[in-house]
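In response to a reviewer's request, we include the raw inputs and outputs for one of the modeled complexes. The two entities were modeled together in a single run.
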Amino acid sequence: MSTSVPSDEAFVRQIAPVVTKTLANEFADLPGQAAAAILRQTLATCLIIRRKATKQRLNPSLFARRVTREQVLSWLAADGSPAQQTSAMSRIMAENREAVARYLAQFRFRTTDVADEVLNDSFAAFFTNLADRKPVEALLSTCLISIARFKALHQLRQERTDPVEQTNWLETTFLTVDEADMGTMTWPLTTADDEPISIDLPVTTTDGRSGTIQIEVSRFRTWLADCFSRLGAARQLLFRLRYKYWSEQELKTMSMDEVQAVFDDLDMTEIAARAGYTNAHTASVRLNESRSRLRDCLTEKMKNAAL
Amino acid sequence: MITDQNKWAIIDAYLAGQLDESGRQAVRQKMTDDADFRADVLMQSALNQQFDREQTSKDYDLVDRLISEGLTTPVSSGPGRSRPVRPWWQQTWLRAVATLLLVAGLGWLGFRYLSGPDTLSTQIPYAQRGFGVDGTPAPDKLTTFPVTFSTDGPASGEYSSDPDGLHLHLTELPASEARWQLRDDPQQGGFLLTDPQGRTYRLDRDTYGGRKPLVPIK
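The model returned the following structure tokens for the whole complex.
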């Protein structure tokens, strides 16, 4: 018997009754506008988790109920009455503290006090995000562990002098969630929400002086978005397809030789076909040209900023 | 060894978490030694995040559309035997929603009398102005923009804005916030906001902490 993966729309339709029922039965005293906002956020979060997590073996109903409850807790922690806020934050800490502490145990900090500090800072940062109305777009445990990972790497960067260690905040690592009722999945811990405030980039000024410029990540992102928007639609599509290809690959680790041998030609053949190019070589050439254009555009912006 | 020929495949694999430990070490070392390579990795990382945000925005769009349609259309389970579909007025979930709306509506009325202004933080559709390769106009990029509605405004409405989002001060929260739309104002550089009734307002991008009246464009 073959099973097919439902479309995004079918998936939302499948879980929506569970979400509305959970809200009606378990959280009937929520304000009406809150219930509507939580319904929307819960459905979107389920969809995002479904898209990003790999190796999923989830019971859809129990998964939807779990996300609904967590979204209600998040709402109460940010927008509930003072008593509700205190209660919700305590519950979030009680339910997740052990998992975050267990994750942090893999990092070797100078002292156990530092480990505790990182743990507490992680929860504080999460609650600040909630207060700032930053949407929770994952399971609470994975959100908290993602923050904890960045806090831990930041702490280790401060403790160590090895510059090579200072770049690993860019790497994606994976977290396996395995819960008896809900099921299992593997969640990518990325740097999307937790990157350093600023980065150092090389720049050569108009008068020929070389050096580095420190740029806020948010500013760098704005520059890049602007430069990217100047590329033609077909070239933008090449980048998007390449990202999609890599983000949908079955998770495995490879050596650099394997990456080069197995993937580069293969993914470009597929991407070229989907983007309407005659062959992988042409698509590769266009992609590399586009990368150069992006770099030139960024370099120009950095030069101007360095003046 | 990382060369100009293989670097993008390796960067992609590195950022996707698919390189082994020795490969990751090589990338870290190269990023430390070679500032241009570091810039390449940062550029690709930022692009990946942009694509992920775009996809997330599409997820919200789908949910908004389905909610606005009432989520009532039964789903076909594909070819073959299909499950009988109960009429919409007998759907259990509809009863649940009706109960939820009734109970929550009563709760909300009580809440309004006992608390300060209500707020609703959401994302509304945003058509971001696009540019072609040579700076010429290109199709708008459809994304979303964070907006907070609150019930502490005058009858005509006020707004405040900053780089983090838009705050609309009204007398009551909108029933269908998804039908508010935002786009870039090509003439004055700010925003053009359209409400569900089709009225358009010209807004500053940053009111620097102050509030300004919502005045429809004639």
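As requested, we also summarize the result in words. Residues 117-213 of chain B form one domain. Chain B is about 35% helix and 25% strand.
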